[in-house]
TrEMBL record:
Keyword terms, alphabetized: Oxidoreductase
Protein name (Swiss-Prot/TrEMBL): Aldo/keto reductase
Domain spans labelled NADP-dependent oxidoreductase: 16-308
Highest taxon above the source species: Bacteria
Amino acid sequence: MNFRRLGNSGLKVSALGLGTNAFGKRSDRQTSIRIIHHALDHGINFIDTANIYANSESERIIGQALEGRRHEVVLATKAGLVRGEGPNERGSSRYHLQHELDNSLKRLKTDYIDLYQIHTFDPYTPLDETLRTLDDMVRSGKVRYIGASNYAAWELMKAVGISERLGLNRYVSIQTSYSLADRTPEQELVPLCQDQGIGIIPYFPLAGGILSGKYSSIEAVPEGSRADTDPNFNRFLNHERLALSRNISTAAQELGCTPSALSLSWLIHRPSVSTVIVGATKVEQLEENLQSISIPLDERQLEELDHISYPFRYGEPFAVYRLPE
């Protein structure tokens, strides 16, 4: 396994990280625990979750799986998206974040979070309130590093500026949708992260499985796939993305690897990317994705992938999560 610094921090994370959105939902408890242990046994040390994943079941499963192995993991979780119907059950106010952190610690069966992330920008809470709260969490020892997620470039830069002006701990990372099917971060976010030393943590690196080659057409949805189990996912399927998937499959065949591994390897080679989050609903799927670490992409192959995916630098992001108005 290759390890990189998370942004300009001294924290080392595996080039491939484990996403756990499906744990407790599309992957049952026993299978999820096997996936976590397989990831640890094969060098993955970064595990990412959130307080809302599978109605908090993801955190509970991770807490059980890491008993006796907590020291092996860089554990990341998030808060800030809608948690319930109450007026303070969302956002990044001091009230909400402190409550959610304490509950996450209990579910994860730990007394500290390695990377605590704000799940999305909160336009209704002053940024200095959020950043002072996070700084207090770091100083208390409950949190070691802080990161953002789903921030626009200007929102992230504003947060960095406030942290520097007030002498607070600053964000070391940003989670964003980033893949061969979504290169929109390269317009503003990637240059910002390169300049400010912020690590990028891509989510949806396979565009929800579209780049894996499993979807042959909009109508032909494989049984058990995300599009099959979550009808809302079908909005992501279109002819342009399926055409890109076919081109990636052709390139992967020439290299003797899977389309998923090739797509992940391309992301691992991108500037400022610290770790790429990949989900899995079975051990075999994780095993396939681990191949991405050892694919030797040369300059010509990288240029070919850049060329076939170039149109996806523009237009709308594949996904972004914001607070409702």
